[in-house]
Amino acid sequence: MPDAKNDNIFLVGLMGAGKTTIGRLLARKLGKRFVDSDHEIEARTGASIPWIFEIEGEASFRRREADMIRELTGQHGIVLATGGGAVLDPANRKLLAERGTVIYLRAGINSILQRTAHDRNRPLLQTADPRKKLEELLAQREPLYREVADLVIDTGRPNVQSMVGTILEQMAACVKERPGTAMNQTKRINLDVALGSRSYPIVIGSAVLDDAGLVARHLGSGKAAIVTNATIAPLYLERVAAPIRAAGHEVIEIVLPDGEQYKTWESLNLIFDALLANKCDRKTTLVALGGGVIGDMTGFAAATYMRGVPFVQVPTTLLAQVDSSVGGKTGINHPLGKNMIGAFYQPRAVLADIGTLDTLPSRELSAGLAEVIKHGAILDAGFFDWIEQNIDKLVARDPDALAHAIARSCEIKAEVVRKDERESGLRAVLNFGHTFGHAIEAGLGYGNWLHGEAVGCGMVMAADLSQRLGYIDSAAVERVRALVKAAGLPVVAPDLGAERWIELMEVDKKNEGGQIKFILLKPLGSPCVTSVARETLLETLAACTA
Amino acid sequence: MPDAKNDNIFLVGLMGAGKTTIGRLLARKLGKRFVDSDHEIEARTGASIPWIFEIEGEASFRRREADMIRELTGQHGIVLATGGGAVLDPANRKLLAERGTVIYLRAGINSILQRTAHDRNRPLLQTADPRKKLEELLAQREPLYREVADLVIDTGRPNVQSMVGTILEQMAACVKERPGTAMNQTKRINLDVALGSRSYPIVIGSAVLDDAGLVARHLGSGKAAIVTNATIAPLYLERVAAPIRAAGHEVIEIVLPDGEQYKTWESLNLIFDALLANKCDRKTTLVALGGGVIGDMTGFAAATYMRGVPFVQVPTTLLAQVDSSVGGKTGINHPLGKNMIGAFYQPRAVLADIGTLDTLPSRELSAGLAEVIKHGAILDAGFFDWIEQNIDKLVARDPDALAHAIARSCEIKAEVVRKDERESGLRAVLNFGHTFGHAIEAGLGYGNWLHGEAVGCGMVMAADLSQRLGYIDSAAVERVRALVKAAGLPVVAPDLGAERWIELMEVDKKNEGGQIKFILLKPLGSPCVTSVARETLLETLAACTA
């Protein structure tokens, strides 16, 4: 008898996420039997789900559902679509987790509203404001879906066939992974950055690096040029290169010096030299293996080598996994300003292996947490709360906490990028803390403070400025300061002198017409872009520097 | 009484080009009376145009039309839409040219076919193959439309309002220009590069540089950074800068050393240094004033400064006007290959002042003619014939011949770019002669042979190779060789040694999987992309080098 965990597949997720459609196709592909829990309840009772809700009430339906889950999970070789609320019952969650591979089909609220617009068979949506109801449901159930899931699949893709293909690949990969470490090794989260023809997947999970099929799928037919740095190369280069080579690709290895101070034209030119020396053509795919510096430089090299070749991001730092690898910002520094030379150029995929964070220095882990905090502070007050409650776990590298922090950060960022790929408006809010942060980095010389450290301190300064403009109260400033500090980041800025501070901030790319643009909090959880009076700015500089 | 030339506007062009729609709006905007020649004929005869063709024959219709043209052009203050064939009669052309400002509304065959698909009122299109008929009509009439026109307007724009706006601006500009030089100073040709949201106009004419309104229209609200070289600056920089400054823009002048050998990262960095030193923000527009090297470098700087700012091409060499300023290829050279680092990045406009060719050294004029010949050789045998017939005029800088050569080259190139912006297929044909040419340039060191000289010689080699594969006969090779020679270009390649030749050609960007890709003629006037046997290539190298 096969292991029950592999023999059954249980689909969980909100109503309208596609559990039935995907489940049927998945069952056909795997030669399993498809069962829909709600349909089974209707067949047994002879009543429709709305009728049961109407006459018996939700509690009674949940009892019937629990009985059905117990019965169906006891079977073998099925693909089971569960009702959206099945995970509310701890007993159900336990049975699902023990008796099958659980796949969370995750859908955005907009797409659910579209799919269920004319469906009268969803009792919980028969309200005046279905969007609000869905948001409540998602807030309540999302942690439960994630808790029980072995695999999270974003159902943003337009095509059911390709989504089922992804599920099958991911399941195959999960089976190969090593069990028995602290983290649930089979957990893998799939997200999509929806940019039309430039859309690409983000895969977050463990042992992603060893998954030859996953990496090779994004390589095309040509050579692979892996760009990394001298610190990362001994740790991970061969682990990435070997399976790609085994898949039949010629691999060129390009190892650059490590550090923000090498994010220069000279390093970029080392990439070009190696590509040309190895006769790399336009079918060559660049693979960025490393942190934000490697990702930004490799992306810019890909954007400009022969006027553009494909590239894949394999981020190995928390900062790169939660921020810089997603969204297509690439570039190098100029002595007069950070990231002043670059391009918007999207990768073909972002493959984030959480296992690489095990070797990350604490200082860099903290630097990555700065961007996690940023995503909560500007766009998701609930996520900010969650970070506050879990900051100790995050600093202690609890894998489940890290996985959630990375996934939620990528989701927030992907949504912003989808709405404003080329930073003509909204996307600027992702620079919260960065106007001050860039000035700190440039003022001290790149590489003295890590980017994330500068951003962490910059967020405290931006919060201080927000309070001076009356946008938030002092308690909110203190929450930001305390969280940045708890993440292991500096909260007091270097004293560069007010004139130098302002001069450095004036070269920021967001500026227009000589005015410095700040991203501020109005209130915590919501961004606001504005210029400020010089006196107010001087007050913040005086209050936050030492 | 106002000057008759300014008081009347006559619209000429093929059926379906929009003469009636545009004419009505233009008349309303100018407070003139709109008259349609065909409608007047129908009103006078009481018979429809198809009926007149059917019963009386075309010759009779043309007589009625000539009478009507004579009568209507004698009036004042009208906008007259003429029939598509009105220009066939020399008497009509004389009347139109003398008695009003003639605007040629030029439309592509595809758009005419779309617009006339369901129109039974076009007697000449009632044939089995309307496309062929239209092509014949266009070939016959295009030179006549151009001969009579003061202004050529491409009707590719989706919006009649914006097209009429362009016509009004262009007419205002024509009035301001100085009369009395060799070229018809009022002639201005407008084309469109149709790339959806990245579409942009090409304006070809005299005194474009002095047209403050024209240049400023493409600048946006910010600063203008004019990038040019030490040769061009004393000739034209102030002429371009003064009207922009007068229009209220801050102007930054960036003067680079002149020559292909300076198409490097170092020169590019001089641009970045100046932009940053002058606190240029994302609203700054870069203006490329110069030849291909300045255009390519400025375009690449625009593509990558702060991840992208707008730019305008103001080409001052024939090569830049007929080729490099159109299509968005930007970049710099690498010691291991020409244009290896770059981006596809479209300008906001291409403004080509034919007057700048007066100061162009003969060697550079010849270099530009190489690309003109290329456009005929690969995509328009009729244009190739025309170049053969007019090569002496072109070398002697006859302004009308140059205007036609530039306009037709831009049209051919714009059409190729429209179909394949990022060189995934078709666009590669524009590299005819370039595979050999790039090897000559790299082999001798950049700057020894001009790019156009290398391409000219490269075309002779590609023709030789085409013959060896049986694609063209020796007479066609001789025609290419003779035309390249008559243009003042080299036809014998330097002897780099066969191994070095092949090594240099192997780094070409078009190559895939190690195979050198050649663009060949099959036959003259049509391109063919292929790899060739090493022996055949060696034969061509032996035959064409000395």
From TrEMBL, chains A, B:
Q: Where in the cell is it found?
A: Cytoplasm
Q: Does the keyword Magnesium apply?
A: yes
Which residues are in the 3-dehydroquinate synthase C-terminal domain? 368-511
Q: Which InterPro entries match?
A: Dehydroquinate_synthase (IPR050071), DHQ_synth_AroB (IPR016037), DHQS/DOIS_N (IPR030960), DHQS_C (IPR056179), P-loop_NTPase (IPR027417), Shikimate/glucono_kinase (IPR031322), Shikimate_kinase/TSH1 (IPR000623), Shikimate_kinase_CS (IPR023000)
Residues engaged in binding NAD(+): 258-263, 292-296, 316-317, 329, 338, 356-359
Q: Which residues bind ATP?
A: 16-21, 122
Annotated residues for binding of Zn(2+): 371, 434, 451
Q: Which GO terms describe its molecular function?
A: kinase activity
Per UniProt, the cofactor note for this protein states: Binds 1 divalent metal cation per subunit. Can use either Co(2+) or Zn(2+).
Q: Which cofactor does it need?
A: Co(2+); Zn(2+); Mg(2+); NAD(+)
What is known about what this protein does? Catalyzes the conversion of 3-deoxy-D-arabino-heptulosonate 7-phosphate (DAHP) to dehydroquinate (DHQ).
Similarity comment: Belongs to the sugar phosphate cyclases superfamily. Dehydroquinate synthase family. Belongs to the shikimate kinase family.
Put simply, this protein is called Multifunctional fusion protein
Species annotation? Massilia solisilvae
Q: Which gene encodes it?
A: aroKB
